User: Which sequence fits this backbone?
């Protein structure tokens, strides 16, 4: 009588543990989707595909804010998803990518706030490179 019950309890405990891990991974993915959404919206505005110039400061501030919480998305409880193990094995190089993202996002926000059109395009390009530099090494294709 005891054995099946123990089996069920162990199964439930294992499900609980993996559900907890995937919540941290899902939270990172939702946050990265927000990064991606702000980025795509900003690109559409800067390229002039849409006429929402007055929204640009909201997207830039969103990207700057999200770059500040990005380091917290890669805790030891958040292994998995499309995040490569190298993030946790090669944490110095990964930290550099996080820092570059932070710098580029804050620079883009500052360029938008300054209103200097000639700075906005290059700053957005630099930010796009910071995304790619991390994805190339630390995200599954
Ligand atoms: C420091 C590393 C790093 C930087 C910088 C970075 N990303 Fe990511 N990004 C990742 C990793 C790792 C994943 C995979 C997350 C997962 O599956 O758990 C990811 C996933 C994503 C996803 C997919 C989310 C999903 O639903 O799975 C999008 C979209 C994205 N990033 C956009 C961006 C954009 C746009 C930028 C730059 C503005 C950026 N990222 C900067 C590491 C980074």
Assistant:
């Amino acid at each position: 009588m005891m054995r099946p019950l123990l089996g069920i309890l162990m199964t439930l405990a294992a499900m609980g543990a993996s559900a907890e891990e995937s919540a941290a991974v899902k939270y990172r993915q939702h946050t990265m989707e927000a990064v991606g959404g702000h980025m795509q919206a900003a690109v559409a505005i800067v390229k002039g595909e849409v006429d929402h110039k007055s929204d640009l400061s909201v997207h830039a501030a969103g990207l700057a804010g999200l770059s500040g919480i990005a380091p917290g998305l890669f805790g030891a409880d958040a292994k998995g998803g499309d995040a490569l193990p190298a993030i946790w094995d090669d944490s110095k190089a990964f930290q550099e990518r996080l820092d570059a993202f932070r710098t580029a996002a804050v620079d883009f926000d500052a360029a938008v706030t300054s209103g200097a059109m000639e700075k906005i395009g290059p700053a957005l390009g630099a930010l796009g490179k910071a995304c790619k530099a991390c994805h190339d090494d630390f995200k599954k294709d």
Remarks:
- The CA atoms of residues 39 and 59 lie 7 Å apart.
- The mean pLDDT is 90.
- Residues 25, 28-29, 32-33, 35-36, 39, 81-83, 97-98, 101, 127, 130-131, 134-135, 138-139 surround heme C (CB under 6 Å).
- The two ends are 48 Å apart (CA to CA).
